[in-house]
Write a sequence for this structure.
């Protein structure tokens, strides 16, 4: 199952996938822009406001009725980050035309809904509704304030703040609590209009009438002033001496997050090797970190590694007993050193291949998984591979290639959130 891509205008592409085995279909519009610290909180708020309704369904009640009438169609509006690039995505999914009880042209309805939300928001006096902005600002504020309640997430984000500093790759997906009071209907509208003008737009049609999508796309672009901005490629933080941070909170289980940098940008065409390296090091129950640090040494409750190729950052995060934090960090570094200097057993590589192949085989089990795979391929740039093509390339990856990847990483930041010391009166 391969993706077909056609260029519509500069900065706008239509991607289609038959998805014949499904009884549902899906249409998505992805706007991609360079990450902006100044506009981050407006960008984070946009999905919440856009998902409330659009010009043809100006409130949540009307929108809910519309979705129910379309046999329970689903609408989602999200934002995501990849390196120094942000994406704003509008997706609608529902049953295919042939399953409509009265022969409705559901593909056309889904396309109208998706493009309506993306290009025809509900405005009052030329701006987003003040009431909608007020309500969703409160929602976003609660979300940002609650970060500290999830200590694992809090530790990871604190480490990332130290690691990325002012780099565009460190712009927070969910914005900044201190910036939220300055967000207004006018600022949100300006941020939205800027996205329409400067974003690269990728429309994905999976299993529905492509003609209906193409017609809606043409109508959305008609009369729209466009000047697509260049998108940043893969980036990297420089290699620096490791810094250690410790924060004490009221908790029982300490959290340790270690961030490693390649020192240079990752190669977009070597994602298969990166995936293998992460699986061998810490991405599986058969990995070195799980088997040796967690199981054999009992130094942590969980310990896993993952790589964000777009920012050349490898993260190892773990939950540990406060007294074992330093031992756990030393053991993690020792496992990395052992991989670089010692043998890598054939079964370690085969376990990684089996796990990755299984994951790639399951991509085709849902429309959302298929879209996530192909949009990830689109975002990284270069040739777009199917899951089957990526799985086939795993056969040629050996121990030397895994070592070659892992030896590029050096520890930059270690962040520990641990238990407050008990005081005795």
């Amino acid at each position: 199952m391969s993706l077909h891509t056609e260029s519509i205008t500069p900065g706008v592409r239509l991607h289609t996938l038959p998805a014949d085995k499904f009884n549902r279909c899906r249409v998505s519009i992805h706007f991609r822009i360079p990450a902006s610290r100044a506009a981050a909180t407006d960008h984070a708020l946009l999905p919440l406001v856009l998902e409330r309704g659009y010009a043809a369904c100006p409130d949540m009640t009307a929108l809910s009725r519309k979705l129910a009438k379309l046999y329970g169609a689903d609408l989602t509006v999200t934002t995501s980050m990849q390196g120094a690039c942000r994406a704003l995505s509008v997706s609608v999914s529902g049953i295919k035309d042939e399953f409509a009880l009265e022969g409705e042209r559901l593909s056309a309805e889904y396309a109208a809904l998706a493009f309506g939300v993306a290009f025809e928001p509900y405005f009052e006096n030329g701006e987003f509704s003040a009431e909608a902005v007020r309500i969703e600002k409160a929602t976003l504020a609660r979300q940002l304030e609650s970060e500290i309640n999830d200590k694992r997430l809090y530790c990871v984000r604190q480490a990332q703040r130290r690691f990325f500093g002012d780099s565009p790759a460190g712009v927070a997906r969910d914005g900044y609590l201190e910036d939220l009071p300055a967000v207004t209907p006018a600022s949100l509208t300006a941020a939205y209009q800027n996205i329409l003008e400067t974003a690269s737009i990728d429309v994905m049609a999976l299993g529905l009438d492509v003609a209906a999508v193409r017609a809606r796309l043409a109508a959305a672009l008609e009369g729209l002033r466009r000047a697509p901005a260049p998108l940043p490629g893969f980036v990297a933080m420089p290699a620096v001496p490791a810094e250690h941070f410790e924060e004490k909170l009221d908790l029982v289980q300490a959290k340790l997050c270690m961030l490693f940098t390649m020192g240079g940008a990752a190669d977009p065409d070597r994602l298969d090797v990166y995936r293998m390296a992460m699986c061998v090091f810490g991405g599986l129950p058969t990995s070195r970190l799980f088997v040796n640090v967690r199981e054999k040494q009992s130094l942590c409750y969980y310990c896993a590694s993952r790589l964000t190729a777009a920012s050349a950052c490898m993260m190892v995060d773990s939950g540990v007993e406060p007294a074992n934090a330093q031992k756990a960090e030393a053991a993690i570094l020792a496992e990395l050193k052992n991989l670089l200097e010692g043998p890598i057993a054939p079964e370690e590589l085969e376990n990684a291949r089996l796990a990755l192949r299984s994951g790639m085989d399951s991509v085709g089990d849902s429309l959302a998984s298929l879209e996530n795979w192909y949009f990830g391929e689109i975002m990284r740039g270069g040739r777009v591979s199917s899951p089957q093509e990526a799985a086939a390339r795993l056969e040629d990856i050996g121990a030397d290639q895994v070592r070659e990847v892992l030896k590029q990483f050096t520890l930059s930041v270690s962040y520990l959130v641990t238990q407050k010391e008990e005081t005795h009166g």
Summary: The CA atoms of residues 158 and 415 lie 7 Å apart. Residues 325-341 form the longest helix (17 residues). The two ends are 68 Å apart (CA to CA).
